[in-house]
Fold this protein.
Amino acid sequence: MKTKRIAILGSTGSIGRQTLEVIAEQADLSACALAAGSNWRELAEQARQFSPEMVAMADESAAEALAEALPVGVELLAGLEAAVELVRRSRPDVVLAGMVGSAGLAPVLAAIECGATLALANKETLVMAGAVVMPAARAAGVEVIPVDSEHSAVFQCMAAGRRDEVSRIVLSASGGALRDWADRDVEKATVEDTLRHPTWSMGPKITVDSATMMNKALEVVEAHWLFDLPAERIDVVLHGESVFHAAVEFCDGSTIAQMGLPDMTTPIAYALGYPKRARRSPGRLDLATLGKLSFAPLNRRFARAIELGYEAIRCGGTAGAILNSANEAAVEAFLAGRIRFGQIVPLVEEALNKATACSDITLDALLAAHAWAHGCVAERIDAIAGGAISG
């Protein structure tokens, strides 16, 4: 039995850890290469357990500590370009792209250049540079398999018909930790409040995005690029149980939905095993015990954030890069205690509105837009708060 070689970008993050759980239970998968940012202790432990050929650490000082803890025979790459070099040199069959934020873009492009199947868990890559990434993947004949639970669900439902038979897709949104809070209380929610997601276990950034609903704005843009659909054919519905992940409505009126427990190892296993399904023993979805599934339209607070995703699709050009970068900067500031929760979405909206229209979709233009948006939000935070939380 041929072993499928997996390179994991972001192995010490939530998605990376769960990917290693899947690899550990599947005899036909192996972790040939692991890349992380600065968590050298966990990367060293992963190297001892999974015996990759090489590892990469972006933080060079952390890499120095890692060098002393790595098992013999594991090669170490260090620096900001280490993940790119790791992909090119390890020659994996599949690259699981789980690095948070814009840092994952260059390694994803390297994976495409190498012809590796791309299991994409980093939605920011397509939001920022879908106009570059997807054409590159098509030209290289590279499969892009989504790992986000909603997009994996759409991908699976698409198998029920042809792409030209799709009328629309429906993505689910949990509403995050603050879903049932009154608007006046949400404005002053703390970081601790925001990170208590009721159904999913995720990293800090995406958990904050879930609460603002900016994750769904980003996912709308990601769906646009993955499935080549215009904004008006991508809908979002509020669904608190996180069991219904997405649905595809076809031209004959049939709607095919995908459901499952809120467990990211399921879409990860699907992406790593594609086109086959892995034989696993996860928890079973017991609909009788669950009793009911609830759905609701988006309230005004949630709709405001998601509309920014639709706006980015309509504007095109560098709008996605600006949306993604502005959100990254605002979330960083919130997690650092510099702004209130209620300021995140308005700061992103302000940056998107300030941006000069640009239809240039070269990689350099997208990176420049990314840098501009990050600086725009940072300057605005300094102006309104002087470095401290303010009205």
